[in-house]
């Protein structure tokens, strides 16, 4: 249990709760859920510029990372076709991968196909079910994809000023504005209570909020004097109590709750808001293809990691379909902006290609 680990090393409840947020990020779990300690480890593994466990902002926004990968690929002869949806993987009579078919009917022939879509989309939507082992299909259907995350992007006309560390008179950013700011994290019991509300189908009345202001480090993201605020919030169930779906009213009501909480820490925040974009779990699924809105393509619980990700006997990036590889967050070692799954899958595919 994460709670036991934190209790062993720390005494301060606010510190323990703040660290606990990285153990439940993207997970429909509480700090008291067995196995939650692994997700904390997952978030501090690796390094950035030689600093172990460090995280960083991408200059130009997260899309700049995708563009950097795209430029590196095209420089080496790759052809990228954006906005060209794949409707199915093309298979030969022997079940071997032969390429993909686009929604406009175009066939793209290839002996190998690497999919960084979720396992659910890859195997349940793009492959005829009769081409897959029944137990494999059952396993993919049973993957826990519950997500508690609602992401809110906010445009503000001035920098938030927190009661705990008020802004300077000139309104210039202070060191804490460059960090991840955790709100409603005074103790782990608050996080557990927020989780419990969501398990009963209700958005948390005092949600866990991770607030970042990337425009402080990357001024090009917003006009001078204005800022972009990114809110990563939990817990919000995909399906609300009574089978109610997320509509504009419920979406805005939850966002108002989040903003009321921020207002308690930083008076004047609500008045500074110019616009907001609210992405609930169903929105994240619809827009980005995340199953259940899960940012990791599936829970990072111990029963869905290592040799069991995405399914037992298929953790090595190869799939039951010869020539089809899984290289996204649903593959080992899971989610996070680290590229490990893609790099590992590429190495397996290159090794196999030599024998084709």
UniProtKB/TrEMBL annotation:
The keyword Flavoprotein applies. Residues 35-164 form the Amine oxidase domain. One of its GO terms (molecular function) is oxidoreductase activity. The keyword Glycoprotein does not apply. One of its GO terms (cellular component) is mitochondrial matrix. Keywords: FAD, Flavoprotein. It holds the Pfam family Amino_oxidase. It is found in: Mitochondrion matrix. PANTHER family: PHYTOENE DEHYDROGENASE, PYRIDINE NUCLEOTIDE-DISULFIDE OXIDOREDUCTASE DOMAIN-CONTAINING PROTEIN 2. Belongs to the carotenoid/retinoid oxidoreductase family. Probable oxidoreductase that may play a role as regulator of mitochondrial function. Interacts with COX5B; this interaction may contribute to localize PYROXD2 to the inner face of the inner mitochondrial membrane. This is Pyridine nucleotide-disulfide oxidoreductase domain-containing protein 2. It comes from Pardalotus punctatus (spotted pardalote). The lineage of its organism: Eukaryota, Metazoa, Chordata, Craniata, Vertebrata.
